[in-house]
Amino acid sequence: MSDFHDRLRQLIKASDYDYKGLSLAIGQGERYISNLLANKSDPGYSSVIRICSALGVTPNQLSGLNDQISLVGQDIDTNIVSAHAERILTSVTREAHRKLSQRGTKPLLDDVLTWWHQHNGLLSNFETLSEHVDLYRAPEPDARLPDPYLIGTQSLAAVSFGIKTADHLRHLFTTFDKDLSQSVTMAHVQTNKGQPLLSIEEIDVNLPGHSFPLRFVYKRLLLPVRDSGGNRYVLNYSQALE
């Protein structure tokens, strides 16, 4: 049986799409599919759904399972189809996380969004992501500075700034340019209203031991989350741009 990426190539070839067209059809950049196939990376949960929808195939077909079902016909129980598709997609997502742990790389933005969506913003089954993200306490609307709560050992802030603790990052915010700190705070205020916030950031930061500002360009995903006790936080997952 061919692997996922071979099946995807075959399905695209049999469709009306080329790689660029399919990438745009599922709301991604024009090289998304090309990069996915070239790097043999794993698409996240939401991308699997959009790819299936665009190509007119079932998750079973994309996963290469033999017990394929059709989503057409009036004699199909849609509840059974939905439950079956959900089981398949859960298996795909679980396998993607397994491969992620094996290869020891950072999660994709799609992985983080998938986790957030599946758990409805609750900080559960968080172990595979926790070392790559930072948590901030949810700010009040008039907050002046971000309030770091937990720093992931492999987060962009920890790796780039050498940060070890939330107190360390909290202190650094007091040394950063006032407009920069205020911009981060307002982004947290906006995220705390309930919706994800994805942006590309370009900042200049004066760090101890450097005589000139260092420039950082990165993708930043902010998510509103809460723990089992109802305490609210803002989750920050950032990736440096190549």
UniProtKB/TrEMBL annotation:
It comes from the Bacteria. This is HTH cro/C1-type domain-containing protein. Transmembrane segments: none annotated. InterPro entries: Cro/C1-type_HTH, Lambda_DNA-bd_dom_sf. It comes from Roseovarius litorisediminis. It holds the Pfam family HTH_3. Residues 32-62 form the HTH cro/C1-type domain. GO terms for molecular function: DNA binding. CDD domains: HTH_XRE.
